[in-house]
């Protein structure tokens, strides 16, 4: 499933109409009937449904929805916000069909007239504005949005909540706060942006018959359960511990052994065949008490128990993760940069390791083997010199530019984690919940990602799999044993067994 900008969606529609030959009236009919079918699952025939229509394609969809529901025996009212002369083309055609079967249309007069109609309604279907909106709304739409939001009725939005921009990067908008959004054809970029996602409520995509090649210009994709099941490899009957990768984890310090402990546990539970953890001698007993299945590499430490510059032989290992709980002392940073620049295996860098790399970003472009960075927005801001608010506003654009510029795989963690490959293709993870907003969650994710990187999938597939598995464990734990308040990273790691059983 693609994730599209407004421009890409318009291009897809044009391709379907001009190249394939699908008439716009038919696409609108398909969209309206598909939305009506899903809306009917949420309403009953005792309810009074208010369909709010604007002048464009979204309004045209609304007329199809109203006609369809009316034909099915539902009680439907249409509230039209645009003047009659503003409704043209395919929208006007479907408006006429609605009227031809006896459908009634009420015109916008004032916010008070809308408020009166809302008082007599049980549910609102929002088909006022589509994906072309940017900036502040003009009258009467600004008043209509405010009035609907204040009414407190259940709202089903068509394609996108009216007033919400389709693309990332917009502030200062006023939009419908939908309970459910029935998205037409493909998810829009703003569905996965922090400042706009909450307006959608729950969501579902409806198929309107667009050919798959219509969205070929989009390089953004949704990664969910279907993709995870399709790409998670099976364990062969005759496989052995060497078949599933020998991982080297480096991190920790005398004062911070917990981070690398979590990563080690997650790498073991996440599918690694063998795990070796390199850390300072003072931390090994603490880690080993929790991870009996791992082996350990004792690294040189300073008098405060932090790793110092030294040589580490990575031959015989299949992948390396580094950075968790290391601290940011200069000697430790020198060690990280040296090892990352020399290691001829895939390397994942997280946490303190990202700060170490910031001192010399040339290392990123000079590597000839896969490099994976896993920042949260604060770390991404540090790496790019943007502010955190910029990362949150434009996660797709900033992460894509960074991954292409430095030739790395980037896992930008957040409510919707985005995996970007060195060519700029992007996959958004759909699992996970607010219970993951805890210290240690990122350390657990790093271990799962490293385990998956050593399996049979390509790097991008492995990273997307790891992100989904991590979030799926959190989702299952919250559903069964825990709440979002008490969930810990250890709970997520312990839940991996259930995840893999579910997926097998």
TrEMBL record:
Catalyzed reaction equations: (6S)-NADHX + ADP = AMP + phosphate + NADH + H(+); (6R)-NADPHX = (6S)-NADPHX; (6S)-NADPHX + ADP = AMP + phosphate + NADPH + H(+); (6R)-NADHX = (6S)-NADHX
InterPro entries in the cross-refs: CARKD (IPR000631), Nnr (IPR030677), Ribokinase-like (IPR029056), YjeF_N_dom (IPR004443), YjeF_N_dom_sf (IPR036652)
Cofactor dependency: Mg(2+); K(+)
Key words of the record: ATP-binding, Isomerase, Lyase, Metal-binding, Multifunctional enzyme, NAD, NADP, Nucleotide-binding, Potassium
Domain YjeF N-terminal: start-end pairs: 9-216
Cofactor: binding comment: Binds 1 potassium ion per subunit.
Reported function: Bifunctional enzyme that catalyzes the epimerization of the S- and R-forms of NAD(P)HX and the dehydration of the S-form of NAD(P)HX at the expense of ADP, which is converted to AMP. This allows the repair of both epimers of NAD(P)HX, a damaged form of NAD(P)H that is a result of enzymatic or heat-dependent hydration.
Record's protein name: Bifunctional NAD(P)H-hydrate repair enzyme
Species in which this protein is naturally found: Sediminibacillus halophilus
Lineage: Bacteria, Bacillati, Bacillota, Bacilli, Bacillales
């Amino acid at each position: 499933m693609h994730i599209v900008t407004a421009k890409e969606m318009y291009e897809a529609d044009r391709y379907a109409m001009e190249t394939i030959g699908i008439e716009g009236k038919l696409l609108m009919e398909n969209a309206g009937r598909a939305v009506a079918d899903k809306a009917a699952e949420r309403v009953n025939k005792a309810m009074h449904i208010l369909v709010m229509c604007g002048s464009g394609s979204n309004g045209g969809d609304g007329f199809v929805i109203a006609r369809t529901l009316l034909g099915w025996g539902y009680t439907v009212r249409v509230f039209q916000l645009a003047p009659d002369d503003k409704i043209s083309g395919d929208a006007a055609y479907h408006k006429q069909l609605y009227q031809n079967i006896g459908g009634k249309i009420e015109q916008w007069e004032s916010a008070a007239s809308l408020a009166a109609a809302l008082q007599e309604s049980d549910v609102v279907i929002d088909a006022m504005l589509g994906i072309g909106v940017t900036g502040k709304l003009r009258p009467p739409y600004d008043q209509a949005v405010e009035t609907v939001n204040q009414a407190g009725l259940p709202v089903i939005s068509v394609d996108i909540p009216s007033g919400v921009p389709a693309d990332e990067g917009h502030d200062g908008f006023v939009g419908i706060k939908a309970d459910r959004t029935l998205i037409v054809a493909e998810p829009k970029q703003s569905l996965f942006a922090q400042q706009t996602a909450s307006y959608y409520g729950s969501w579902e995509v409806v198929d309107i018959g667009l050919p798959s090649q219509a969205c070929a210009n989009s390089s953004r994709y949704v990664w969910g359960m279907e993709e995870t099941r399709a790409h998670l490899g099976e364990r062969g009957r005759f496989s052995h511990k060497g078949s599933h990768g020998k991982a080297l984890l480096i991190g920790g310090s005398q004062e911070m052994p917990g981070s690398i402990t979590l990563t080690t546990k997650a790498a073991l539970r996440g599918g690694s065949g063998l795990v070796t953890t390199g850390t300072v001698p003072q931390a090994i007993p603490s880690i080993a008490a929790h991870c009996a299945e791992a082996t350990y590499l004792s690294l040189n430490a300073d008098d405060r128990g932090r790793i110092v510059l030294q040589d580490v032989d990575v031959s015989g290992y299949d992948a390396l993760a580094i950075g968790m709980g290391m601290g940011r002392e200069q000697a430790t940073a020198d060690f990280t940069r040296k090892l990352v620049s020399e290691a001829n295996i895939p390397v994942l860098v997280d946490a303190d390791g990202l700060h170490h790399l910031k001192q010399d970003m040339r290392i990123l472009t000079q590597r000839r083997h896969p490099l994976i960075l896993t920042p949260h927005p604060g770390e991404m801001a540090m790496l790019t010199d943007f502010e955190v608010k910029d990362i949150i506003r434009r996660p797709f654009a900033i992460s894509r530019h960074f991954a292409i510029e430095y030739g790395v795989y980037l896992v930008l963690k957040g409510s919707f984690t985005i995996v970007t490959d060195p060519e700029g293709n992007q996959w958004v993870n759909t699992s996970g919940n607010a219970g993951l907003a805890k210290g240690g969650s990122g350390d657990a994710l790093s271990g799962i990602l490293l385990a998956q990187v050593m399996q049979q999938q390509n790097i991008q597939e492995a990273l997307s799999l790891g992100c989904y598995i991590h979030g799926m464990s959190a989702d299952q734990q919250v559903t069964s044993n825990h709440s979002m308040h008490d969930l810990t990273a250890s709970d997520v790691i312990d839940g991996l067994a259930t995840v893999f059983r579910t997926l097998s």
